[in-house]
Fold this sequence. Notes:
The structure holds two protein chains of two kinds.
Chain A: H1 11-19, E1 32-37, H2 44-58, E2 64-69, H3 76-84, E3 92-97, H4 99-105, E4 117-132, H5 140-149, E5 155-158, H6 165-176, E6 185-188, H7 192-201, E7 206-210, H8 211-219, E8 223-228, E9 253-260, H9 266-280, H10 283-292, E10 295-300, H11 301-322
Parallel strand pairs in A: 1-2, 1-3, 5-6, 5-7
Antiparallel strand pairs in A: 3-9, 4-7, 4-8, 4-9, 4-10
Chain B: H1 2-16, H2 19-37, H3 43-54, H4 59-84, H5 93-104, H6 108-141, H7 146-157, H8 168-182, E1 186-187, E2 194-195, H9 209-227, H10 250-272, H11 278-292, H12 295-300, H13 306-322, H14 324-330, H15 336-347, H16 356-359, H17 361-382, H18 386-390, H19 397-416, H20 419-437, H21 443-465, H22 477-503, H23 509-515
Antiparallel strand pairs in B: 1-2
Helix pairs in contact in B: 1-17, 2-3, 2-4, 2-17, 3-4, 3-15, 4-5, 4-6, 4-13, 4-15, 4-17, 5-6, 5-13, 6-10, 6-13, 6-14, 6-17, 7-21, 7-22, 8-21, 9-19, 9-20, 10-11, 10-13, 11-13, 19-20, 22-23
Amino acid sequence: MMKRLVGKLMLILALVGLALPVTPVLADQVEELHFLIPGGAGGGWDGTARGVGKALLDAGLLKQASFENMSGGGGGKALNHLISTANRQQGTMLVNSTPIIIRSLTGVFPQSFRDLTPISAVIADYAALVVAKDSKYQTLQQVLDDFKADPRSVKVAGGSVKGSMDHLVPAMIVKGAGGNPLKLVYVPYDAGGKAMAGLLSGDTQVLSTGFGEALGLAKQGEVRILAVTSDERLSQAPDVPTVKESGVDVSFANWRGFFGAPGLPEAKAQAYRDLLKQLYGTPEWAEIRDKRGWQNLYKPGAEFTAFLEGQEEAIGGMMRELGFIK
Amino acid sequence: MWDGMISGMLTGISTTMVPFNIALVLFGCFMGSLIGMLPGLGPITAVALMIPVTYGLDPASGMVLLAGVYYGAIFGGSTSSILINAPGEAATVATALDGYPLARQGYPGKALAIAAYSSFSGGTISVIFLMIFAPLLASVATSFQSADYFALMILGLTAVSAFAGRGGVLKALLMVVLGLMLATVGTDQTSGVQRFTFGSLELLDGIEFLLLAMATFALTEALSLVLTRDESSDSLDPKMIGFKSLKVSKKEFKLIAPTIARSSVLGFLIGVLPGAGATLGSFMSYGMERNLASPEERAKFGKGSLIGLAAPETGNNAASSGSFVPLLCLGIPGSGTTAVMLGALIAYGIEPGPRMFTESPEVFWGVIMSMYLGNVFLLVLNLPLIPYFARLLAIPKNFMVPMILFFSLMGVYLVTFNDFDIQMMVIFCIAAMALRLMNFPMAPLLLGFILGGLMEDNLRRSLLIYDESIAFMWERPLTLGINLTTLFILFFPMLRSLLASRKNGKGSQTETVDATS
C-alpha cells in the first residue's frame, strides 16, 4: 500500500489549474505555472514540485501556481497525458527524475525524455550506502573486500523493486571495484522507510538509499553513512567520504527537474529556465533547500539533454549487464 | 527515566493546555471525524487535506492538529461502516462485519455508541502505553525482521475462520485464495517483473486496497439494496429503530470490557510494527476475540455480536496510536498516513528520531498529551450526535443508493485521481455481487488480499536473506514463538474437542470442523 503512498489533494487547486484558460504569456515573463506531478502526494516528485512552486510564489517571481497529481503506471500516465494534450499544456511543467530514464529503458512506458521539451534539472539527491551504528563496517572498502571474499555475506537493502535506482547504484559500485554485480544480493522493500527499518532490525548488512533520507538518522547517531555518490563531499555531512575517494570511480546524481510539453516554443521554454535560474539566488529557495536537504543542480536546456543521455548510457549499460534489458 | 517522563509530561501539558492548542485539538478532531465519516474518505485524505492549514503554525501546534485529524478520522470511520456497510478505509472493514448487522437489526444507536466507547478506550489505553513505553518500544519496532513479519502474516491468516459467515469455511478459504491471487497483480518487487498486468500501464502498481474494499462492500451493498425486495433491506421504519437506545447496559459493558482490554494491547503492539498497521490490528483483534469467545457468543459473530464490534474498533484505534512510536522515535512511517505526517514534520525542520525527546520535547510530548484531550473531545462530540447519524438509516433507498454510489466512487477517485480505478471498481463490484449472491463472504477476500502482498514480500525477502533456505522459520526465537502460536491456534480446538469426545463419547463434531480451518 505504501508504494502508492497516499493521495490527496488540493483538489480545488487542481481543478482551478485545469480550468484556467491558457493565456498567451509574454516571452520573457512568466506569471503563472501549472505543475503536473506524476505521483501521489507525499512522494519525492510531489515535494519537489510543491517546494519549487512555493518558493517561486514566496519570492514573488510567480503570481500563481497550481498543482495536479496524476499517479498511475509508474509516472507513465502523466507523461502520456502531457504528450497527448500538448497544445493545451503550454503553461505546464512536468516534474520528473531518474526513474523516467530507467522506466523508458525497461519499456514500462514507450516514451522517453526525448519526447518532451527539457526545461532544466533543478536539484539532486545523491545515493548513499548506509550501515547500522553497531556495524563492523567503517569504510566502503571493508564492505567491498567482504563482498569479494563472499558475495552472500553482504546483502543490500533498498526501498524499491529490483532493477531500480537503489539496486543499480550498489551494482555500479561493485562493478567499479572489479566485482561481479550479478552476484550482489539485493533485498527489496516497498518504501525507503521500511528498508531503513530492515537495516535497523538486522535483515541486511547494508542499505542503499538517498543521502537525504539517511541524513536524519545519521545525525542522530543511529546509522552511519559509509559513502555518498557525489563528486565532492557534501556540505551537510563533510565527514562522509565520496565513493570516488574510496577508490571506486563511480558517481551518481538522482536529479529532479522539469519538462515542458512537446513542441513548446523555445522562447517560452527559455523563459521557464530563466525563472528557475532566478530562483537560486533567493533566500526563500535557500531556506526550503536546506530544510529538505537538497543540492542545487542547475542544468538547463541542451546541457540537461546531454546529461540525461550520459545517464541513460551508464544506467542502460548496468541494466544490460544485470539482465533487465536485452 | 521516570524523572524524564514526568518533566516531559509537564512540558506536554504546558504545550497542550493553552487555549489556542486546545482549540486546535478540537478543530482537528472535528474535521477528522467529519471527513472520516464520509464513506471512501479515510485518514490519509483527511490528513493530506489539513496539511496546508498547518503551514504557519509552530511545529508543536501543527502536529497536535494533524494527530487530531488522524485519530479523529479513524474514530469517525466506523460510522459509515456501521450504518451503510461502506468502510472509509481499510482499518474499519472489520467494524462493518458485526456493526452493520447490528444496525440493521434496529440498534444503530447502540452500535455507534459501542464503537465510540471502544474507540475511546482503545485510544486512551494506548496513549498511556505510548507515554510510558514509547522509547522502549522503539527497539521493538526494529526487532522485527522480514522472517518475523512473514510468521505474523501467517498467524493473521488463521483469523480467517472468524470471517466465514453464512457460506461456511470452505467458501471462506476459497475467497482467501482469490484475495491472495489478486494481491499478485502488478510489478513483482523481488524480480522487477510485471505480473498479470496484461500489458496495461494501469495495473502496473497493482490494485488499491481501498478500491477493492469499496467495490466489494459499499457498492455491492448499494446494489443488493436495489436487487432484493424483502422488508429487511428496505429503509427501516423510523419507529422501529431505537434511535435513543444509546444505553449500553451494565451487563453488556461487562461483556465487552475484557475484549477492549485485550484488543487495546494487541492493537497497540501491532501498530508499533512499521510493517503491519491498523488494518492488521483490527482484523487480528477480531480473529483473536472470536477464538476466545464462548461457543454461544461465537455463533453470533458476523450477525451483530457486541464483542465482534468492540474488538476491531478498539484494535484499530489502539494501532493508530501505536504507529506514532516508529514515526516519532525512529522517523519511520508504518502507513501511508504516517508517511504524510513525516513529510509535514520534516517540512517544519524537525528530525524525528531517538533524539526527538530531548531536541523537540514540546512536539513529542505535546502530541502525546493532546491525545488524551482529543479522545475525550471525540467522545463528547460524537455521543450526542449519534441519534442524528442513526437517522440516516431511515432515508428511503431511492436516495440512499445513489448517495452510497457517489461517495464511494468519489472517495476512491480522490486518492489516486485515476479514472481507470473507477472502471476497475465497477468490474469488481459486478464480480463481487455474483459471488455474494452465491453466499461467498467478502471479508476473507480482503484479508487474503491485504496479507497476501505483505506475506509474499516478506517471504521472498527472508529467502534472499537466508540464501534460499527455509531455516528462517525457526532459527530466531521470535519467529519460532510466533509460529508456535499459529500452530497452537490451529490445533488447540482440535485437541480440545478430541479430549471432550473421549470423555463424553461423541463430542461436538461440528465445532471441530468449524474451528480447525
